[in-house]
Amino acid sequence: EAEELILLDFWASMYGMRVRIALAEKGIPYEYREEDLRNKTQLLLSMNPVYKRIPVLIHNGKPICESSIIVEYIDQVWNHKSPLFPPSGDAYARARARFWADFIDNKLYQTGRKLYTTKGEEHEASRNEFIECLKLLQGELGDKPYFGGESFGYLDVSLIPFYSWFQAYETYGSIDFEHECPELIAWAKRCIREKESVSNTLPDLPKVFAFVQHLRKRFGID
Ligand SMILES: N[C@@H](CCC(=O)N[C@@H](CSO)C(=O)NCC(=O)O)C(=O)O
Q: What is the pTM of this model?
């Protein structure tokens, strides 16, 4: 029967963007369904009862949850083109890619979130930690064009969505990324310039910025 592929997502989610980029890299058609995270659908609640979070990829009725796991699933199931993970024979490269994807998941979102939700000491601490995280990632990139080496890969997919939040991070974090991590900014612009899967997926930075302004009002921060 016809293959059914549904993605439960939210337009501004850097995690959802990872899945959209991976699906676009593979050229896989799918049905996109936008969730209102303050009024979740029964489908989301039943497909991800543990975390009740997007993204969820529903493949022939079976849910796959957690963006990094969904990207790995996509890479394995649709392995006919654009491999994202290092080759299965290179266990070390795979382990290293998973380490840095885990670093991004553990550090970047939480620290970045504090840039626009805190003030004073906590803000200063999260600003320093955020910059440190970006410098470590810049170090991992080194002089390669992509984290995947010569080609766009799993770690590039994992990190590039955060770039769409950079105007918000820059403004509310008072961070000058060109000064702090110029090679990382060059990498992000290279991804947008050379990968249609990225330029067709990332929302405009001002749109995300306006969303964050809306969040700050909702949190009563402004
Ligand atoms: N580790 C998970 C994070 C997903 C997530 O935070 N999803 C958020 C929206 S994006 O920030 C979400 O669905 N939040 C809804 C809620 O928390 O109620 C992943 O990588 O998929």
A: 0.97
